[in-house]
Amino acid sequence: MGITTQIRTKSIKSPLNYIGGKYKLLEQILPLFPKEINHFVDLFAGGCNVGINVNAEKIIFNDNLTYLIELFQTFHSKELEAVITHIENRILKYDLSLTNEEGYKKIREFYNENKNPLDLFVLIAYSFNHQIRFNNSHKFNNPFGKNRSSFNKTMKLNLERFIVQLKTKNIQFSNVSFENYDYSFLSKNDFVYCDPPYLITTGSYNDGKRGFKGWNEKEEFDLLRILNELNSKSVNFALSNVIEHKGKSNDILINWVNKNPDFNVNYLNKNYSNSNYQTKNRDKNGSVEVLITNYKTSIPMQTTLFNF
Ligand SMILES: C[S@@+](CC[C@H](N)C(=O)[O-])C[C@H]1O[C@@H](n2cnc3c(N)ncnc32)[C@H](O)[C@@H]1O
Asked: CB under 8 Å to 134, separation ≥6 — which residues?
């Protein structure tokens, strides 16, 4: 089967193994999206797992992590072969492997001086948990993923499929914080998908310690206000989040849903069983994962209001 055929039959997985990435939930999320979409805005694009698998006239990937967006722009504009050759040449030059920490540190230093986006990808491939972390001076500072991380066959295949798919779509990139995004061009058939950092969980991207803004109650309120504004302009949106996690609940989100009875809470299930929220929807971390929409979905997994 050629690479183009494979792409049509299976969802594309981000080559970045992005923390908080929605690849595993795609089967549940995508059927909940509107069927016809003009502009699709992936407002917190991260690894781009969602937008890359969506059919729309135009897909806009936004994330405030500038270096990440630059990397996707490079994947989009360069030939696939040139990207792979660049990566493999770097691996050879720095003798990168599962054990060569010195080589990893050298290419990290080189990246921090030159900021070539494809070198960031090489670093991510060999870094601990494939995490993207910068310090306040915007120096990449994630440690080496000794014996665990490398540019292996799976990552290479994911990268190739991702780049091929990227080139088949009408894509635009943007790298602003969501409050500064210009929503004014959006109208009825457009769609905004939001997968922000979760207020009640911790990811390296919401601690505010990597030279980029963190995620706190202010950001949560600002985003919910923007979603209300979109709703009043009849722009559809979907918001991924968790309403409960390890005994904590996101009361800001729960109150917002209760104040907006026209919104729908679609409960997602990592175990794919068709249970309802009250019984089995918590996963092993006690997480209740939801997709909140301002339109009715055709799947009977939703409720309009929840009380605790
Ligand atoms: C949960 S991840 C998104 C994962 C993505 N949906 C995927 O499946 O690969 C959240 C993303 O939001 C970004 N982010 C955090 N604060 C932001 C802000 N204020 N504006 C825009 N993006 C932000 C982070 O850099 C991170 O990439």
From this structure: 67, 140, 141, 210, 211, 212
Span 7-48, pLDDT tens digits? 345 899 999 989 889 999 999 999 999 999 999 999 999 999
Mutate which of 26, 29, 63 for ligand 1? The one with the most ligand atoms within 8 Å of its CB, which is: 63
State the average pLDDT for the chain: 89
- Phi then psi for residue 249, to 5 deg, are -125, 150
Residue 271: what pLDDT? 57
**C-alpha to C-alpha distance for 29 and 50, rounded to whole angstroms:** 9
- What confidence score (pLDDT) does residue 147 get? 93
Quote the pTM value. Answer: 0.91
Query: By CB neighbour count within 10 A (0-12 exposed, 13-18 middle, 19+ buried), where does 243 fall?
Result: buried
Q: CA 16, CA 101: separation in Å to the nearest integer? A: 20
Q: What pLDDT score was predicted for residue 233? A: 97
Does residue 162 have its Cβ closer than 6 Å to ligand 1? no
Residue 287: both structure tokens together: 């997480």
Distance (angstroms) between ligand 1 centre and the Cα of 19 equals 10
E strands of the chain, at which residues? 39-42, 58-62, 171-174, 191-194, 236-245, 248-249, 264-267, 288-293, 302-303
Whether the Cβ atoms of residue 293 and residue 299 lie closer than 8 Å to each other: no
Contact indicator for 39, 185 with CB cutoff of 8 Å = yes
Per the CB < 8 A criterion, the answer to whether 161 and 14 are in contact is no
Q: What's the pLDDT score for residue 17?
A: 86
Nearest one of 214, 186, 181, 200 to 245, comparing CA atoms:
200
**DSSP reduced 3-state for 236:** strand
Q: How confident is the model at residue 164 (pLDDT cuts 50, 70, 90)?
A: very high
What mean pLDDT comes out for the span 263-285? 65
